[in-house]
Amino acid sequence: MISGPLVVAVSIAYLLVLFAIAWIGDRRAAQGRSLIDNSTTYVLSMAVFCTSWTFYGSVGRAAQGGLAFLPIYLGPTLVVALSGVIIGKMVHIGRSHRITSIADFISARYGKSTVLGGIVTIIAVTGIMPYISLQLKAVSTTLTALLDWPNASSPIADIPILGDTVLLVALFLAAFAILFGTRHIDASEHHQGMVLAIAFESVVKLVAFLAVGGFVTYHLHDGFADIFLKAAENPDLRRLFTIQGSAYGDWVALVVLSMLAFTCLPRQFQVTVVENTDRRHVDRMVWLFPLYLLAINIFVLPVALAGRMAFGDQVSPDLYVLALPLSQGAEALALLVFLGGLSAAASMVIVETIALSTMVCNDLVMPLLLRLRWLGLAQSPDLSGLLLGIRRVTMAMVVLLGYAYVRLIGDSYALVTIGLTSFAAAAQFAPALIGGILWKGATEKGALAGLLAGFTIWLYTLLLPNFARSGWLPVEFAEQGLAGIDFLKPYALFGLSGLEPVTHSLVWSMLANLGAYVLVSLLTGHTAMERIQASLFVDALRPTGPAHGRSRFWRGTASVSELRALCVRFVGLDSADRAFTHWAARRGIDLDRLTEADSELVDMAETLLAGAIGTASARVMVASVSKGEVVGLDEVMEILDEASQVIAYSQRLEAATAELKAANERLKELDRMKDDFISTVTHELRTPLTSIRSFSEILFDNPAMDETQRQEFLAIVIKESERLTRLINQVLDMAKLESGRMTWVIAPVSPRALVEDCVAATQALFEDKNVVLETDLADLPDIATDADKVMQVVINLLSNAVKFVEADSGRVFLRLTREGDGIRLSVDDNGPGLPPQALETVFDRFLQVGDTMTNKPKGTGLGLAISKTIVEHLGGRIWAENGAQGGAVFTFTLPGQPNS
Amino acid sequence: MSRRLRLTRPSGKPERLTAAFLLGLVLFLPPLLNVASRDVLFGGIPVLVLWLFGGWLVLIVILALVVEGKPDDDARAP
Does the A640-742 domain belong in CATH 3.50.50.60? Predict the structure, then answer.
């Protein structure tokens, strides 16, 4: 049996250690040697997610539902993987706008709306404050269990107030929050001491849980497998190894719920966004935080099974963690476990209290006070004391209200189920929060409608029936629905039954919330301020986004002295002076000479105030000392359009650059082709010229040459000259075609007559070589084309065919058929055909099929290139293939009209 | 130019993290969860426990590899 005084002394000593750690943290921060500016501390502070509900409750859930406790921790693991899109962006926005709480964030996103900030605060207080009570209740229950073991625990209401350790703990926690949560008037500044203490507590609760887990698994039993094998013998426990069929819906709902709650719980927002000292810490958090969750959960199921095997129904499963070591007489371990649970509870109470009090002060009380003109607050010379006072009173009230709850309704159903109920309340912020950073079109009215709709459904389907079950409302309400209407049963709204209450509530509230949010956003418009804030938030991570120049939206002026006086009133003389001097120094401006504040200075002052009194109130206060307003909606659109135009321009510029590059490549290619062309042409010209020259020289040097030989040589000279002429004509043709200077005479022409002309023109060639030309010419309607050019193509194909067939045995087949409304003409020979690789390239300029080094070239190498250009210009197509008998087949088509 | 574009990975850390998120969804949600949820012990440990904690650990390792990877993997022109 552990003695009461010892436990109280240890608890108080532990809480004093927390004070000391926080004090050191703040001291080091003041010296500029921060202890929390590292990703490990950041991750440990985020582990405030694991409250006493995790520490004791996970085992309780596991003892009854097996792995059903796990989705609560899988959800956060999944959501941190999306940190680039959601959490990382929230951190970035939070830091650059000096956001002080989730209410402030949502209010700022939707045009610095005071109403939204207030609504979020009210939802948070309603849904989450009872959760603080649950933590205190856990402390009291475990304390009783520790002291009274093995007797049944006595109800908390029987303990006299003065001897109540829980009250002492609550007072300590309130004092801690007040001391370390209100050190700066600027709520967006980091509470370094507090964060350090929270990180320490996360270590303590993890160590404590791992200790008890290791004790149960390896001391009481023989490892994991031993526990599972023993449990498997009991069918009741074996059932916990799987998920029962109907539980899948709840499983999915819990994963989704914990993802949303992890993002939206005020205490998570506080440690993740407000207390973040460096955006880079988010990176490591992505894997380190899930690792923490994995570690604290690994022993949950074994402890739950061991507890059920040891106690059956004798002990509440929520107390297994404590009862197992106690039953073995391991009192030191039990004390450590108690401290772990105390850590989990204390860290949650502290952070939630600070987060809620900031929200209540900045988003509920201050806006109201500033609007009450008869208080004259707007003119009061120094409000920083009042601000801190409000926050301190709120903190004390939050903790003490939590304590009162415990004493009044400690054992009620409503309090026991508040864990998931408060998750579901926090999840109502998700559409407005996540939608707000991803969707520019979301409007203030949409967010308001969504929040109200979701909150109402949450109240009706979760909180009120919980109240009814606790006996504060007629229990018929929960069981038979409002006024006995079946359709309005809170746990089976509109007949949706068969779900756990939380799942049921989540389905309906999210449907209503998201539906109203999207629908109203689509149907309503933005004010100028909403429009500005929407793009600042959504485009926050875009390097070209408007975040770097938000002062552009401000067109008013204010006097520097008034602005400064305003800041002094809220943040105190020191902070205001420091901020103004820093601003001036960075711009190299002499502040004393500056009388009119420009938009940048006004923006700086507003952000400074936002850190102290929230975005919405800061806007109101700055507007009160400045002439002019933010720019009108039209101008906002213009500025935003400018920004998007700049982006569009730069994208177009990139595209244009790419096009230019391509064009440049093409030009280089063309230049290279031109060089090739010139060198080939000169080469081709030189061949006939050389033979003309050499035969002429022979003739010149040998006047006595006999007649026959002279005739023979002269014939060669003539033939080569003809070849030269032809070549030059073709080069000229080619040049004309390519430069587009060729004149085209399009006129109706009979295809058959045209082809017959060609046959007649080449008849001599065929006769010379004794080659047979067969024709199969269809009678076709006239086509509109350039007759001369087409003749050139046909003659070229025919003379090519003659060139490549054997003399005497050669046969050429010419066929003219219809192709659509045009013609198709093919020239088929029984020559050697084309090598396969030449089928494509044969139309290239100067390509001679066959080895030019050994064979005497038979053509100029330009004929087919010219033919191709002509046919394509006239809208047709030309190609080569090898015929079935081995010869080459050249085919071209022409349309009825050159442009069709 | 075109060569360098081809060598740069088209996806940075955000995309890879999102892929890990999708993997997590597949691991932790039905219908694959149904496959693991059977009344069988493997080495004395229920299959579902192995599946969930093993999958969780694998996911954490993947997340760690992605975020602790070389920063220049992520270097993309703004």
Answer: no
